[in-house]
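ok new one. same drill as before - structure tokens go in, u give me an amino acid for every spot. 357 of them this time. try not to just spam alanines like last time pls lmao
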């Protein structure tokens, strides 16, 4: 590793990898986003270069990086729209065909769906081919299906699918197929496991999360004050204590940014008296579409909150993060976005959100 790269990692405070701790734990997307430590088996790393240290963005106002002398930086809210529904995808799923002798009603399919559509740590989906629309879709009442299919995820942030998980998938889907009088045809286990490992190799080298820590310069902040300042920049309460989120355009999509502080302090009876001395601002690169501007929002929100709360921005080891260094990661993030898109796993797409979860 070059000295320049070491300097960048020290300044940035971590382009964080799933498998490396950020402030003791990382953001889990499970159950609305509780904090957890990622599994150690996946060594995920995105290492930005530190070339051309004088590089700056051409328009600092658009990027939000000119916020150092103004704590009124706003992260604009946009019109909300519905997020796309997760679909079986041959790119990231092993797909089992479920042939039918005769069409089946959506009600019958719904009645026999497995209670849990997980095989170990891997999610699986079941879809039907609608006789009216000619489209594959999640089962619904009122529809008639001529064919069915089930797809199990080949890899996720917990690692690639293994033989035990695939066997569990076969068992659950076979029981469902028997209940709806379908004939199941499953891909070969060795092929599925090999595909899972290949996909995991790709995802583990194209996975990145960024985090910055804001620590009180003089005295701890009342939780009510943190919430007030964060709300001015578009953050709203998350579903877990001590978590605020900057919503994405799509309803049901992962947030553009999330902000975390001590959950115990967030559950105090009087938030004016409850205090914390540190907050962490994070964004998950593959989960968030580039068009949402997550990096610019992350920079702007971090700097604006640091000014309004009188905070020091640092990495996880307390090393100061210099704002002028932030633009350096932009080119590297663009390159990562391009590599994901080339694999048809554009950041923020339904497939990417499933794979990097």
């Amino acid at each position: 590793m070059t000295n320049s790269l070491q300097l960048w990692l020290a300044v940035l405070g971590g382009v964080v990898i799933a498998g490396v701790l950020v402030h003791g734990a990382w953001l889990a997307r499970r159950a609305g986003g509780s904090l957890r430590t990622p599994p150690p088996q996946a060594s995920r790393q995105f290492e930005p270069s530190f070339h051309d240290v004088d590089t700056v963005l051409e328009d600092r106002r658009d990027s939000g990086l000119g916020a150092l002398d103004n704590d009124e930086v706003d992260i604009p809210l946009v019109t909300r729209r519905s997020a796309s529904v997760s679909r079986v995808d041959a790119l990231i799923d092993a797909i089992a065909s479920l042939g039918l002798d005769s069409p089946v009603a959506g009600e019958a399919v719904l009645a026999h769906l497995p209670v849990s559509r997980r095989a170990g740590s891997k999610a699986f989906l079941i879809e039907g081919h609608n006789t009216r629309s000619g489209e594959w879709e999640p089962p619904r009442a009122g529809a008639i299906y001529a064919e069915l299919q089930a797809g199990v995820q080949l890899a996720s942030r917990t690692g690639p699918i293994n033989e035990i998980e695939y066997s569990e998938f076969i068992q659950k889907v076979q029981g469902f197929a028997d209940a709806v009088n379908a004939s199941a045809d499953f891909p070969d286990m060795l092929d599925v496991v090999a595909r899972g490992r290949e996909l995991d190799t790709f995802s583990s080298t194209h996975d990145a999360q960024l985090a910055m820590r804001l620590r009180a310069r003089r005295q701890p902040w009342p939780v009510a004050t943190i919430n007030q300042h964060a709300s001015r920049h578009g953050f709203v309460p998350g579903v877990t204590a001590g978590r605020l989120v900057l919503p994405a355009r799509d309803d049901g999509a992962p947030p553009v940014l999330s902000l975390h502080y001590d959950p115990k302090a967030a559950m105090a009876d009087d938030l004016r008296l409850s205090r914390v001395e540190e907050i962490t601002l994070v964004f998950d690169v593959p989960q968030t579409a580039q068009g949402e501007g997550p990096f610019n929002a992350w920079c702007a929100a971090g700097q604006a909150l640091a000014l309004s709360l009188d905070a020091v921005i640092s990495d996880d080891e307390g090393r100061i993060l210099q704002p002028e260094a932030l633009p350096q990661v932009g080119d590297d993030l663009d390159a990562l976005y391009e590599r994901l898109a080339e694999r048809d796993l554009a950041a923020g797409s339904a497939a990417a959100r499933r794979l990097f979860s």
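The chain has a mean pLDDT of 80. and btw The radius of gyration is 23 Å.
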